[in-house]
Amino acid sequence: MKKSILAVSIAGALLAHTSIQAVEQMPPAVIPAPVARVKSSFLETFTAAAKEINAAMGGQTDAVKRLEIVSKLEFSPALRPKLKEVFGNEHIFDVQRTAGQKGQIAYVMKMVPHTYLDENAVAFSWAELTSRAVVNKAGTTLDTIATWPSLSIVGTATSGMLEKMSMDFKQSRMKGGLWYGTGVVKVGSVAVRGTTPGSSEFKETLRLDDISAVCGITSHGKKADVNYGFSIKSILFGGAPIERAHIGLRMVNLPAQELEDANLELKKVQGSGLPEDAQTELMLRTMKAFGKNMVTSGASLVIDDISASYRGNTASIKGRVDFDKVVDADFNSPVELGKKIIARLDVRLPVAMVNDVSRLIGAKQVDASAPNAAEQIETAGKNIAAVVIGKLVNEGFAVMDKGDLRSAIEFRQGKLTFNGKAIPLPGMPDGDVIKAFDATKKK
Question: Count of domains in the chain?
């Protein structure tokens, strides 16, 4: 069910985006599916509507024209009653063109609140979704906001609730047709509840609070950067609360022309009318070609921050991944391409966090009903922490710095090292990942 909830979260953002930019590009893979391979009128109806929207678009890429098409779209007579039953509206979304400021066109979209019980005993219920898109008459700027107060999915053994969802995108289309700008999607909370066999009582098994995802593309002449950020204020799962988790990544020095060409090719495929498997094959081929151009042109992955906090202490990773003078011939050999990867990660792990996590592990080894259980847990935790810290520091894989364990992880010429030392792993005694990989291919 957890995967279904996340899928619905993604679908929610895409649903809001329907009225503003890319309804015709919604892939069926992100449509909410309570249980895989189970008949679902919800899934089938959504898929059928997406196909008719895609057909109506006819490969149109202009933002204003796409919005106009959506605002006037009438679904087929056979689909309308199904949409009314499943979504409470024959259009799924009501899209209305309204007066905007001088030189602008505004579109307001609403999805009515509704509850639907699927054949597999899963109930979908949501509040009203509203969105407003403002486009200039040239179709080159697009500002979008959307809000969705709640969405719930209740099954026989698992349920989920998403609350306070919103989206804010500000974009500009360049000459090549690619949209640059920044978008933010937020979810106030995600809660998953489940029941145990023989019980009808739902208990919370997972809770995420204050989720935020940021993505954007910026232009630098002939180069472009793609930025991605994801953060969660708190995670409660399995009794061990994580206070904060964050990911901040950037793909820098991307070839802007190749990025625009790949974007155009993908749109052509999506509007081609070809069978889905043929479209998938062509899209993968386009993405593979773009990936090759990206690597050979000197693009890099910058890890600004990957971090998580527990009981007031934060562990973090920062670094960068580059490719050293890759040529076309390297793509014919995974071994040669692997040798061209240069990565460095700086890792910081507070000793206090090691102690806290070791105590949690120690608790699982102790009988909680024992008279001196607390003392045993404390002793077990200290022993585990001592072993971990001692091995890392004494063997030179990490250094102690003001209460933190620090290590510089490097991958260069196919070899993985920690503070300049190779960790002896099974099949990789000298840290040579490429040699180990090559050995498995020869078996």
Answer: 2
